């Protein structure tokens, strides 16, 4: 059994049942990427793994114990989450926002400490925003803001990091930068779980891929073993070709040109 | 330990070139400086409140009047019997309302949430008036508890109305619900007072709050509650910070938004109930003070809460002094705060500094 796994989850909001009998395993020290169409339940699964959503049925285990039994701060020292759309308090500076990642390490009797200070400084430096430390977060670009939020989760110093679409809002260069950063965090021994929409990025960076559709896992495994044209068609309903990436030899998904197909059928009529 | 004692990170090495206004306002020295400045300001206001009033009192009589009044000196008696209790009441009521406003705004993530505007103080006043009109208790403590019940009921009612329907409790909806509930409460309060004018003896402060003309036996009754509410509110500074990033991010950091909201609501009810039992419903103080403090110090509740605690009595006593001197017979403190606070409210609404929940 892996450190983090979920057994037979039924995930539901008040009325809408999002997933039933959903089981996932996050391999230890993996960089796991979850892909799937909009509204298939990726964020919902992350919420359940982070105990933000209580499963209607089933259990999430961390280090062999059900996470529902852990005190909140203890859980938050083991597992961090970057939500898909967090709120930025108005007028907060970058350093102050990142410092809030230290919350689970503090308490009434344990206020700000040297370790907190180093953790925040390291996190700022790791995502390359140290020179923005005194800027107001509201006044940053979307990409800068995304990296600041990553720094907050980093400052939390957890062994497991769950990232919901960490590359949205970023230009291609910054997407790669953030993914390289994630890869580095992963190499340093952390377990990462990220939701990504770009399949080529997912295939390039993931050591373990989970493909979801309609609240079900259709396939899970190393991208090179599971990503086929057939799988992409089943998950996204998108006809495509899968070719080796010329740069990394990982699978690369090239959507079929449906315009040409349409033009051809139009000609034959 | 109070959150005051906590520290924040220095900017990391290499960030020196970027030390801007943020670093200045987050430095520890700057923070102690603010605390010192606000404390001095409060002391000066207290002295002014003892020295200035409708009756002229020689300044040299103020200090003896506070500590050892000479029964033969009219000036010293005025200071000791009238102005000292009134000033102490102003400090307690101001601190309670400023802090309650700051906590409410943090809880609802709504800069317009304010005990006066949202009807919490109005509910407390109505409950007190009902109790005065029906049971006529001898012990002022009964009124304090009535005020708690009224404040809690009003808060629950406004929240229930504001959160109904699609979209939940957005800032605008909460304020609208609060205004409506508050209007009903003050109409009921006025009606009850008309029904039994003798029980109220011309005390208008149950409609518009005032520091003047109050029985001073109320102060020792509310003081323990104000202190308890203050300690609870200050202890919530860090959980409120975690809540500011949304419930999801807050819970992912190990905070408990549900518990923070419940404890915060208790603090607000205790603070607003005490303040209203002591001085009647006073509006706008809880709006203006946290707004000014956030503008100066940013959104960190470990600063916003203590600064609000110190600044609010300065403004309330200031308003009270203004009310004493502008008209021959005094102007109710609550009217002065409304006069100064309403324009600020308009500015805040126009600036659109409200974010939906
Ligand atoms: N708070 C909520 N209350 C009710 N239903 C919700 C809530 N959040 C999500 N849902 C519903 O649950 C389903 C799964 O949503 P989820 O956010 O997990 O999708 P997702 O895979 O993350 O999609 P996306 O790629 O768009 O982020 C959707 O049908 C969505 O409408
Ligand atoms: Mg999502």
Features:
heterodimer; A: 269 residues; alpha/beta; Rossmann fold; 6-stranded mixed sheet; 4-stranded antiparallel sheet; 25% strand; B: 357 residues; mainly alpha; ABC transporter involved in vitamin B12 uptake, BtuC; 15 helices; 70% helix; globular; disordered N terminus; disordered C terminus; binds adenosine-5'-triphosphate; binds magnesium ion
Q: What order do the helices and strands come in, and which of them pair?
A:
The complex is a heterodimer of chains A (269) and B (357).
Chain A: E1 4-12, E2 17-26, E3 31-35, H1 42-49, E4 57-62, E5 65-66, H2 72-78, E6 79-82, H3 94-99, H4 114-126, H5 142-155, E7 160-164, H6 172-187, E8 191-195, H7 199-205, E9 208-213, E10 216-221, H8 223-226, H9 229-236, E11 240-244, E12 251-255, H10 258-268
Chain B: H1 21-26, H2 28-51, H3 62-67, H4 74-108, H5 120-134, H6 140-163, H7 171-195, H8 197-200, H9 218-235, H10 237-243, H11 247-252, H12 257-279, H13 285-297, H14 301-326, H15 333-351
Helix pairs in contact in B: 2-4, 2-14, 4-9, 4-12, 4-13, 4-14, 5-6, 5-7, 5-12, 6-7, 6-12, 9-12, 10-14, 13-14, 14-15
Pfam families (chain A): ABC_tran
Protein name (chain A): ABC transporter ATP-binding protein
Keywords (chain A): ATP-binding, Cell membrane, Ion transport, Iron, Iron transport, Membrane, Nucleotide-binding, Transport
